[in-house]
Amino acid sequence: MGKKEKKEKDKKDKKDKGKGKKEDVVPASPRPSSYEGSPPPSEPPPPLVRTKTVPSGDSSTDKNSGPCLINVVDEKTNHDVIFALSDGKTINAHSFILQFRCPKLYEAYVKKKPKGKSRKPVHIDMKENMDPESFRVMVQFIYADNIDFPSFSTSSVLNIVFASHQLELERLARLGEEHLRSSLNLDMVFSLLKGAHELGEARIKAFCMDFAHKNMKDFIKRKDDARSLGVELFQEVVSLSLEEYKAPPPDTTPIPANSLHEDFRKLFANIKQADTTDAFVNIGGEKINFHRAVLSSHTKPFAAAIAGAKDDDMTDVLGVANMEPEAFKSLLKFVYFGNVDITPVLACDIAPFAKRFEAFELQHISESIIADNISGNNVLSILKVAYLSENMGRPEMASLRAHCLMFLTQNIKCVSLDPLMEMDIRISVDILKAFQPK
Q: pLDDT of 202-227, one tens digit each?
């Protein structure tokens, strides 16, 4: 056999081998189902889809859970405070948030608030002693405990620290100080030292002086910058050059922790006092108060529904008459402070409600709680939710139905079937089919 013939034979063998490999792969048969998307309960159901739940953390940049009302800052409908700034602009805010997040501003609101039940916004003049840029940053921090210091100039951060001390926002002030300390260099130390000296910011002045002492030779070489300090401050720096440099002891004073979740937990606990809220639902004779701005900021459908309400009673516009009171409270706890301690039975009420109002994170959390806690006491309640018309086409709900039906085939003796009389007939049919021999 010549080289050419051998090459063609090897090519043909390789091709035939490839064909044989493909023929060995048998396509899977489509799985029959009782209804849309329901796998047969006689086979092990596929793993349930899990949504990772991010616990409420202490990070100021955590955007995955917990309260963050930055979307509601300066909103036009539910605020009751208006701050007037020196640049001619205003910022809208909410007294109930200031009460727990910035007592100093809340005191200013209380002093201006007229007697009676008027809901007209209280106007507070911040033109005299407050830099507009700094105040906007502080309001954002009050609502979200979130600030990107590297995006600000050195002078802006210094002003933010100074203003934070005025409003007793110690955490924000300390975060600003630590940012300046960690980024300090020869190019910025002169202006920062002078600014801290003029504003009376002792901590910032102290670490600037220490930097100057440690780098005295390079510091003195910058003659024009040194002159900008003024005679008094320059003499303070020069006097350090006569002393041997010794590193100061490290500052071990802790930065106050992020209290955002805890503050909103307190805010939620305070909703029992109707005079501090502006909305409520009435479920089974129980009145549950809440703040329009908090729920409105969570999703656009919540905002649209609440905006369309004619009075404070949101029972009809939110469609909660058939919910369990504790289910609505659990929803509020999630919205206010990220609480996910929800029982499986309450989750059955919350999941479809959350879906309707596009609160998708809460929806997925509720569905995961349901899936992880199927028992004889709740399996029919879970099936009731899983067979809702809006859930029939969803893969995770199909998997949940299959798991519930599988549970019933193995634990039927511990389940009371009386509720089936009031439930979707398809549930009873599928339960019967689950017991049919295959």
A: 999 999 999 999 999 999 899 899 89
Distance CA(402)–CA(305), nearest Å, equals 35
Would you mind telling me the total number of residues written for the chain in this entry?
A: 438
How far apart are alpha carbons 84 and 90 in whole angstroms?
5
Question: In whole angstroms, what is the distance from residue 371 CA to residue 423 CA?
Answer: 20
Architecture of domain 70-241: 2-Layer Sandwich (3.30)
Query: 70-241 with 263-435: one CATH topology?
Result: yes
Interval 58-88: pLDDT, tens: 333 343 345 656 666 666 788 999 999 999 9
- Residue 418's Cβ-count burial label (10 Å; 0-12, 13-18, 19+) is exposed
The values of phi and psi at residue 421, to 5°, are -60, -30
Whether residue 181 contacts residue 203, with contact meaning beta carbons closer than 8 Å, is answered with no
Residue 420: DSSP 8-state = G
Is 434:41 a contact under the CB 8 Å cutoff? yes
Q: Taking Cα atoms as reference points, which of 198, 190, 197 lies closest to residue 218? A: 190
Burial 137-164 (b: 16+ CB within 10 A, else e): bbbebbbbbbbebeebebebbbbbbbbb
Q: How far is CA 347 from CA 98, 206, 340, 343, 384, in A?
A: 32, 54, 10, 6, 12
**Which residues in the chain come in under a pLDDT of 50?**
3, 14-15, 17-42, 46-65
CA distances from 63 to 143, 226, 283, 326, 390 (A): 13, 44, 32, 26, 29
Domain ranges of the chain: 70-241, 263-435
Distance CA 175, CA 172 (A): 5
Out of 3.40.50.300, 3.30.70.20, 3.30.710.10, 3.40.50.12580, which CATH number does the structure's domain 263-435 have? 3.30.710.10
The DSSP element (H or E) to which 165 belongs, if any, is helix 154-166
What would you report as the CA-atom Rg of the chain, rounded to the nearest whole angstrom? 32
DSSP 305-357: HHHT-SSSB-HHHHT-TTS-HHHHHHHHHHHHH------HHHHHHHHHHHHHT
pTM of the model: 0.75
Q: Is 75 exposed, middle or buried (0-12, 13-18, 19+ CB in 10 A)?
A: middle
